């Protein structure tokens, strides 16, 4: 880096947290930009003593796990599992009979919740991980 940038960085290290917040606000107003973190990203912010604090990334994909299927509800659950996964009859039957088993991986939260509701209405027990 250039000497100018190095001197600016050294000056920034001496700011208090309140002064740094004021600086960010002034830069946003002066240049018409936003210092907001992108949605879903991991943000690392420097704290007073140079320690780093990480923000936890929000989970965006979920696994639908079939925990249990009562014997008298197996056919109804089997139909829903076929609908969700697109599996053939034999593969879906094997999946349902081998519970607890992951039905589908990497689902968006809304889809996982909807599938969980369908399976539970059919009589199966499901969890989202």
Give a quick precis of the structure:
It is built from five helices and five strands; from the N terminus they run H-H-E-E-E-H-H-E-H-E.
Please explain how this structure is put together.
The two termini are 45 Å apart. It is built from 5 helices and 5 strands. 47% of the residues lie in helices and 19% in strands. It is of the alpha+beta class and 129 residues long.
Could you list some keywords that capture this structure?
single chain; 129 residues; three-stranded antiparallel β-sheet; two-stranded antiparallel sheet; rod-shaped
Number of strands: 5
The amount of helix comes to 40-55%
CA-to-CA gap between the ends? 45 Å
Q: In sequence order, what are the helices and strands, one letter per element? A: HHEEEHHEHE
Unreliable stretches: 40-54
Shape: rod-shaped
| Strand-residue proportion | 15-25%
| Rg of Cα set | 25 Å
Mean pLDDT: 79
Tally the helices.
5
Largest sheet: 3 strands, antiparallel
Question: Structural class of the helix and strand makeup?
Answer: alpha+beta
Strand order of the largest sheet: 4-3-5
């Amino acid at each position: 880096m250039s000497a100018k940038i190095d001197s600016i960085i050294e000056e920034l290290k001496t700011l208090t947290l309140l002064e740094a917040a004021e600086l960010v606000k002034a830069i946003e107003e002066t240049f018409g930009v936003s210092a907001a973190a992108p949605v879903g990203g991991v943000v690392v912010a420097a704290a007073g003593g140079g320690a780093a604090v990480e923000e936890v990334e929000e989970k965006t994909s979920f696994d639908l796990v079939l925990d249990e299927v009562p014997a008298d509800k197996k056919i109804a659950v089997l139909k829903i599992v076929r609908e969700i996964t697109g599996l053939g009859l034999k593969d879906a039957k094997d999946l349902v009979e081998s519970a607890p088993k992951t039905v589908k991986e990497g689902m968006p939260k809304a889809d996982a919740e909807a599938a969980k509701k369908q399976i539970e209405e059919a009589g199966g027990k499901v969890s989202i991980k």
